[in-house]
Specification:
Oligomer: heterodimer
Distance between the termini of chain A: 18 Å
Radius of gyration of chain A: 21 Å
Structural class of chain A: mainly alpha
Largest sheet of chain A: none
Largest sheet of chain B: 2 strands, antiparallel
Number of helices of chain A: 7
Number of strands of chain A: 0
Shape of chain B: flat
Structural class of chain B: mainly alpha
Strand content of chain A: under 5%
Order of helices and strands of chain B: HHEEHHH
Number of domains of chain B: 1
């Protein structure tokens, strides 16, 4: 019997990738900046249930599901089923674009709109750490590190994009298994 | 008798699967090690905020100190729930393909497990926010483990075993 020709080999997935990337990139950016301003404007507290926690809970792994959305859109608009590898590729590309878009917006565009944002975040973080009982010596050390512009921050951003790519690759694979036509039986 | 072309094609597909598996396993291992945070590499509490591990996970996790475990007195780069997810993803990727030949439920069952684990986490978070109960790092870890294992089960469960009851 001749093998079935899979449509997913020929149909372009870029529209799905870009759609999911833009949606999740913008939401991730908005949540990050929103949580940042909440931190800046709130008094340090030991209460664990507050709006910041809610934002954190929503943000936590939320952006990893861009790959799944892209695969869902692809299977809905273009093809009936997606093989695991194609799902991984769609998720990977989606994750890379989400990571880059989110980083670009929060680290390049937003500081142009509010130049004092980074300093305010650092001050708020120091206040929070002080409220949590960090010693003066540790606070001073932390402040020095923050203002010195640690090179590890750049490495962190690069690793962040890799992690975005990886997590979305995984959810893209899950999406390929979940949204493809059921081939059981 | 199978043709030479078919045998070569099957061998090539097998090698592709092995590389895909090793790739996924390598990345899950790397992500889990990074998620353990700077304490694993001799960091101090003062250096936590400026560590690249924290920066790397900042957009993905709340990183609330009271919701996180510590290593050598230094907070991990992710909360306890995310620690469970990444840990289970790594461990599940390692073991599920190996035990799949002995035990592999249907894809529909694994999908239901994934949805159930997500629902449990949502209920847990909403219940806490509503003040119905207070979760702990252990309960967050357990719910994270269930989600991580469910994802690994779907993604890597039958990489090497294609049964009638699974794709």
């Amino acid at each position: 019997m001749e093998p079935e020709i899979n449509d997913s080999n020929t149909s372009s997935y870029w529209s799905s990738v870009i759609l999911a990337s833009v949606i999740f990139g913008l939401i991730s950016f908005a949540l990050t900046i929103g949580a940042g301003y909440y931190t800046i404007n709130s008094e340090p507290t030991n209460t664990t249930i507050n709006p910041s926690t809610i934002v954190g809970a929503i943000t936590c792994l939320f952006t990893a599901f861009g790959g799944m959305l892209a695969v869902w859109h692809y299977t809905r608009e273009k093809v009936d089923s997606v093989v695991l590898g194609k799902g991984a590729l769609i998720g990977l590309l989606t994750g890379i674009i989400i990571g880059l878009l989110s980083l670009f917006l929060s680290n390049v565009i937003w500081p142009l709109i509010d130049p004092s944002y980074t300093d305010k975040i650092i001050d708020a973080t120091m206040r929070t750490m002080q409220a949590r009982g960090m010693s003066q010596e540790q606070l001073q050390k932390m402040s020095d590190m923050m203002h010195s512009g640690s090179p590890w921050r750049s490495i962190g951003y690069a690793v962040n994009v890799v992690i975005f790519a990886f997590l979305n690759m995984i959810t893209g694979m899950v999406g390929a298994r979940m949204f493809s036509e059921n081939k059981e039986q | 008798m199978p043709s030479i072309t078919r045998v070569l094609h099957q061998r090539e597909s097998g090698l592709d699967l092995i590389w895909a598996y090793l790739g996924i396993l390598g990345v899950t291992t790397g992500v889990f090690i990074i998620a353990l945070g700077p304490g694993l590499f001799g960091g101090t509490p003062a250096s936590w905020y400026t560590s690249w591990q924290r920066v790397a996970f900042a957009p993905l996790c709340d990183q609330i100190p009271s919701h996180s475990f510590s290593i050598n007195g230094v907070q991990m780069a992710v909360c306890s729930r995310c620690t469970g997810i990444y840990g289970a993803l790594w461990f599940g990727t390692m073991i599920f393909p190996l035990i799949a030949s002995k035990f592999l439920p249907s894809l529909a069952f694994r999908r239901r497990m994934l949805v159930a684990s997500m629902v449990i986490i949502i209920i847990d978070v909403l219940g806490c926010l509503a003040g119905l109960w207070t979760d702990t790092n252990i309960s967050r870890l357990i719910t994270g483990l269930s989600l991580g294992f469910s994802i690994a089960w779907i993604v890597a469960g039958n990489l090497f075993v294609a049964t009638k009851r699974s794709i």
